[in-house]
Amino acid sequence: MLKGKVWKFGENISTDHIAPGRYFHLRSNLPELAKHVLEDSREDFPKNVEKGDIIVGGKNFGLGSSREHAPRIIKVAGVSCIIAKSFARIFYRNSINIGLPVIELKDNGIDEINEKDLLEIDTEKGIVLNLTQNKKYTFIPFPDFINALLEIGGIDKYVKKYNGYGV
Fold first, then answer.
1. Strand, helix or coil at 149?
2. Can you tell me the distance from the alpha carbon of 25 to that of 111, in angstroms, rounded to the nearest whole number?
């Protein structure tokens, strides 16, 4: 179960918005790179995001390069989950691989979610509760193997624990 307050972003948030290219020299120092996460879209975000907060975006979140740094620094910054109408395919897969839940709500009420709303998310049942507005949204729950990846913190930890890919 995830719980956090919402930071809203718009459509087409690219990996360059997430990890500005001028800080590419920090790619081997993720905590330092995370101090600039999404600053080109929201200057206040990297300074004020708190552990457990949730990003809500529009269509095509994470488009651009296949750099894994983008979802990694979102996770390092403390974000517990990203909800969007849709995700760029590689960003989506990179996020799951590092243990960062990414949920597609498409047009199923996502526009009703406001900045600073408090959300509670059950990835196993496919439920997003907006505790601020007392509303419920549903999504197709993750399969068991993805929930296992998310719970353990990513594919590298999963493989180390289970000595391979078997569940």
1. helix
2. 36
